[in-house]
Amino acid sequence: GKYFLVDCGFPNRRQFLAPFQGVRYHLQDFAGQGNDPENEKELFNLRHASLRNVIERIFGIFKSRFTIFKSAPPFLFKTQVEFVLVCAALHNFLRKECRFDEFQIETVDEPSSSNPGARAKRR
Fold first, then answer.
1. CA 28, CA 24: separation in Å to the nearest integer?
2. Which domain holds residue 58?
3. Could you give the residue ranges of the DSSP H alpha helices within 1-123?
4. If we measure between CA atoms, which residue out of 52, 77, 80, 53 comes closest to residue 66?
5. Distinct helix (H) and strand (E) counts, the chain
6. Which superkingdom (predicted)?
7. Which residue has the higher pLDDT, 116 or 105?
């Protein structure tokens, strides 16, 4: 099935995955030794926050690389979803096949307990 990763402004319901309220959520809350998740709800929120972070980074890359993402496109939602899929495929193809692609991504460490990678930024 398909699920929407949503923030705490949405209720947890069918196909909507919201974090648990009143439970640690932000990656920085789990940073450092001894700040590991203490229960299943905290673990869910940590994974939710990590995934949300990845999604925000990739859309930052898409906005830098593909101008169609710089403003709200005048297309149906279904078409917008297809744009995301096509741009993801195109981005991955260019990263793999074009050695001299002018768009480079460098990584910058950011604090988190699981070191969920790095923030992408354009050079």
1. 10
2. 4-122
3. 40-65, 77-97
4. 80
5. 2, 4
6. Eukaryota
7. 105
